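Hey,

Quick one before I head out. I ran the complex with sodium ion overnight. Inputs first:
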Amino acid sequence: DEESLLLASTLVLDAKRGRNLEYILGNKYVKSYIFYNEPFLRWILYVFIALDLTLAIFEEPAVPNASIPYWGTMVMEFACMCYFSFRILHAMFFQYSRVFFKDAKNIIVMVSIVLTLIDMICYIIWQNMSPDTHPVRWSRPLRPLFIVNFPDGKQIRRAFRNIRRTVPDIMNVLFLFLMSVLLFGLLALKLFAKRGLKYPTGIPYFSNYFDSIWDLYVLVTTANNPDVMMPAYDYSKWFFIFFLIYLILCLYIFMSIVLATIYNNYKKNLKNEIRAAVFTKRKQLAKAFDILKVSRHDEHVITHSRWKQLMGLLLPNKSAAHTDLLMKILDTGNKNVLDKKDFLHLSDLLHLPLSEVKDRQTLFEKYFPDVYNHRYSELFKRFVRHKAFRYLFDFLIVINAVFIAIDLDVADWFFLSIFTVEILCKLYVFGAKEFFLRFWNIFDFLVIGSALMASIIEKATEKANEEISTLDVLLVLRVMRLVKIFGSIKRFKVILQTLVNIGPSIVTYGGVIFVFYYFFAIIGMELFSGYIHYYGYDEQYIGSHGTNKMLFCGNVKLNNSLFYKAHYCNNNFNDIVQSMVVMFELSVVNQWHVITSGFVLVTSKVARLYFFAFHLCCVVVVLNIFIAFILEAFILEY
Amino acid sequence: DEESLLLASTLVLDAKRGRNLEYILGNKYVKSYIFYNEPFLRWILYVFIALDLTLAIFEEPAVPNASIPYWGTMVMEFACMCYFSFRILHAMFFQYSRVFFKDAKNIIVMVSIVLTLIDMICYIIWQNMSPDTHPVRWSRPLRPLFIVNFPDGKQIRRAFRNIRRTVPDIMNVLFLFLMSVLLFGLLALKLFAKRGLKYPTGIPYFSNYFDSIWDLYVLVTTANNPDVMMPAYDYSKWFFIFFLIYLILCLYIFMSIVLATIYNNYKKNLKNEIRAAVFTKRKQLAKAFDILKVSRHDEHVITHSRWKQLMGLLLPNKSAAHTDLLMKILDTGNKNVLDKKDFLHLSDLLHLPLSEVKDRQTLFEKYFPDVYNHRYSELFKRFVRHKAFRYLFDFLIVINAVFIAIDLDVADWFFLSIFTVEILCKLYVFGAKEFFLRFWNIFDFLVIGSALMASIIEKATEKANEEISTLDVLLVLRVMRLVKIFGSIKRFKVILQTLVNIGPSIVTYGGVIFVFYYFFAIIGMELFSGYIHYYGYDEQYIGSHGTNKMLFCGNVKLNNSLFYKAHYCNNNFNDIVQSMVVMFELSVVNQWHVITSGFVLVTSKVARLYFFAFHLCCVVVVLNIFIAFILEAFILEY
Ligand code: NA
């Protein structure tokens, strides 16, 4: 009986938390499942996933001064694989085999672990046999799969499912779009090749089919507009019409259709996901009900005593009065028992923020009730709660802004202490619990708290001559303080509140984008690391102080290139951090063809395929899904 | 009685055509209103509006070789104003004064006419007093108002109404966005100014507040990414975080919110517009019903004889059988009379493409029925209608594509005649009416027909040495032929059909964008014409063959500028056509800051305001509305 109670409470918790792992309904398995859901096990998983991904910093090509011998990172990676294996075997234990092995994500995790181990063995052998042949750790692009495919990364997996379901639908549009590029490429080749035009850099203009379609593909991203048009336009004004039609069709119409398709799918998938989640939740609660129910007057119900036992497991810290109240809320017919229909609302009820009076007391009130409830204290509390208090500090921020704008830094200790006092007052009056519920309070606390700490460090150490000093951090924190003004302006409140609400989802999409970035960054490092270095651009200085090999970003092929002239040498794949920066720059799209051209010069034109694949995956698909998500989030919130 | 019949039929026509001008319900006024709606009067209006806008080609600064003395364009403009006045006075005649003068568009047209006339007088005086002071025709930016504010431009006006209603809602987001730019600008100034960094061109990096916010505003358009980051990033990798946060916030989040707001408003407005249009239509039909109704058995109905009279006016060419059929369709209760509810469906019915047998006959069938219905002819028709016929010609296009790709132009006469034969066959079998109903047939007819004509001209004249010859046109037409393959591929059909369906609306938005372009182009010509010229970029050639004034695009200030190095000199405001091209380039956004920098160099930094205003109006607002329109159109069609 205690066993069934445990099972029921686990099912209710599953419903509340939106978990949908199917486990064997035996006591041993349920206990294992409960253990599996222990937060500390999940946190250890997160730490190991993070560690596994972080290894790219220490492996060759490593971030400068962070290189570790290969056996060092391998030991760490092996530890990760061990914990991942433990985790997946644990999940295998409490699930039916047929369920477990039908789940693609379990297979993917197991295959990834095996491949990683094989790769490690291969690498060790290769490294010891012929280290000069640049041994390849080919399993590294698989690492982000662990983020996506462990059951704990539900939000991210949902986003990936969304992408997977959207791709077939946009295939038609993308295919039509690529066909159009091919057709226009042919046309451009026919029109321009025979005229022998040249770009300002002297490169021939639309001289072969591969260059022709590449230039036109880049044009859809607008990155080489209007440069790609100018030679033809200088030749004859009529050629503008060619580019006009191409851009209207491929950029404005096709790309909008891609967005429309993605947005439409996103909405549809969102609806289905919510429907599926609600269905799972009801199924779990119905199961729990069936376990707890007793027969009474031809009806299946849950009695008050059963309810108390269940609550004892679910809410062990709450008083009997509280759990009785919860039952009263559910018991719509005032029958003092819960029927199935009542019980199905339980998971929503558990989400309601019902707090008891003792919870609402501030810590200070609890331990010093006499002081806190004293007459003067009451007066002070009324003052702090009054809107004049808010206006006063809003006014002080404006004054602070003026001081910052006219570079009067001397007063900053004054402002810092004033705003610290504000936070302390609010903490006293509202208590920590209520204080930290509001976004702007957290913001304030972080900005002022960090500034306070940084100021103290700054006073204490007094070191300078570093690239970035504590002073710079202080400066940023000082200006960030001004952001609070936005929070006080009424017309911005809806927008900012929406932003705060969708913040967690934005972070999820950040995770999705990180997965793609990491995948492409690792591949990019294998393909392009070491070709381009940053040694500064002062050719005379390098000529006299360095070796000739350091000229032109360490690669003479870059001489006279746009890449070198634009000072893009730090946009390279020499370590994971710089690669990630390049990924971001490629996502912003502008000048991505110049970055590409640099790596084409030092390798070959085939390198374009890598950048093309990145653009198609990350910009056309993923970024548009992100925009669809923001669109829908804002439309729903408004 | 005849008068009321005329009024009723006019009301029904109003409902059918979606006209919503309110006129006085007297015979004289109705007749005037009917005359006002005569197509030829509207077409004359369109011609005069087009003429008025075209004048910019001939006025100073004129397109090369198209200059006309100022009195020439003034005579034409005066003619336009006369016709506009006639048109607006005509509308004034049949409307109640209070209705007429409450309508903003009438006021705008009248004020524009008056201002134009004043401007013309001013200009003549100024021109004759002191022609050297560069007299300004300041009323020219008002010209596009005539497109928008005559009642005939309903579609365009609806789009403008949409923009007007959307602007207040995005003000908050835009304001928050601009405030963020100001704040980040302050931060960037504080962080970077003291470090004395420089851009590759030697320009100081974030050295003053105005430049700082300009660079960051340009960054939101992505146009100077990653260039704007590189000096700081080369200095310290940590500064990447600043640009990352800025771009995520201002580009990805704020700009998506702007799109979301615009899209949301667009949907809302669309719904309201449709609701209002339906309401107006019902009101007009109800009015018509009230005029025609007779009392019978306590009910108001329209009798059969009344119906016949009405149809005699509305569909004078249709047979009695046809109009009786229409009445039967409306007469849901089989009462042989129409009650009000029946009658309200009339306008939808008039939109149905009901054709009589005699309409369905092809012209050939009508005049040579024996030949057309002969046994062999029937066999031939069955062959043309068979899908093998389509496959055959699809196959021939593919062959044609191969010939074009491998540059085998000799066979083109063969393909051209084959495809001409295809069109003739289809015309014979389906008749012109049915043939020209399909988009792909029209496309085919135009492409093949033009190619045929161009080929004949080419053969006949045999002239060469021109910038663009008939051969180029032929080439384009030849490649365009291949587009027909897309129409045959099933998976593309939905997309292409949607494109064809929304085509007219896209043209409407083209009109909207034209209005903004024209407005900004005229102002741009007043501000920037004559500063930058295109003389080619071969400095040695110019040095020896031309004057020194022709160096650096005719302006020594452009020496060493990015604008000159990128060969952007043809992106100038020297005539309306080139200005329009610049407008389009600015809309595509890429490198717009380089174009701006050229005009800043030859004038002053204040020039940035013009380009900023263009970006905010045309890109942030208008282009997003266009994207919202495409989004909604595709989501509705799918
Ligand atoms: Na761009």
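Residues A 222-223, 589-590; B 222-223, 589-590 surround sodium ion (CB under 6 Å).

Talk tomorrow,
K.
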